[in-house]
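Weekly sync, protein design subgroup
Attendees: M.S., D.O., the rotation student, P.L. (late)

Item 1: inverse folding check
M.S. brought a backbone from last month's batch and wanted to see whether the design step gives back something sensible before we order anything. D.O. pointed out we never logged the input encoding, so this time it goes straight into the notes. Structure tokens as presented (138 positions):
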């Protein structure tokens, strides 16, 4: 049983996953600090209020604290925006420049039968499902 555990732990997937989690946690801390220390004060300087936690409304003596939800929602949107523009876009451009990512879509292997709407091979002249003749693909 101990040798099976050793094989499991030393398998490539587990080590890769562990490294990804550690790097992900460090990356999360970096992005969170960037947003909290630079982006949120910038928004506070523009709009005047960096924290909405005190916003509430009351209905029949029940208090709804929607401000903390607004804080969480805005934090998510800000983090997602920063990650997209500061990480995803530059890496995508870099990977395209290094020819790591394909620049065009691959040709589809199937097409739709005009009669029964089933997926048939592009080169087919007759549908295998409804047996109707189909025109050659362009």
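Designed sequence read out in the meeting:
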């Amino acid at each position: 049983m101990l040798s099976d555990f050793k094989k499991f732990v030393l398998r490539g997937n587990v080590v890769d996953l562990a490294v990804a989690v550690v790097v992900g946690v460090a990356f999360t801390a970096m992005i969170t600090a960037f947003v909290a220390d630079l982006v949120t004060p910038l928004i506070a300087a523009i709009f005047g209020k960096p924290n909405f936690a005190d916003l509430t409304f009351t209905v029949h003596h029940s208090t709804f604290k929607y401000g903390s939800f607004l804080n969480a929602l805005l934090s998510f949107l800000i983090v997602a925006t920063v990650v997209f523009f500061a990480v995803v876009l530059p890496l995508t451009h870099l990977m395209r420049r290094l020819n790591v990512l394909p620049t065009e879509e691959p040709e589809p292997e199937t097409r739709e039968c005009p009669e029964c709407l089933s997926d048939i091979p592009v080169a087919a002249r007759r549908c295998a499902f409804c047996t109707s003749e189909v025109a050659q693909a362009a």
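Discussion: The longest strand covers residues 57-59. The mean pLDDT is 82.
Action: P.L. to compare against the previous round before Friday.
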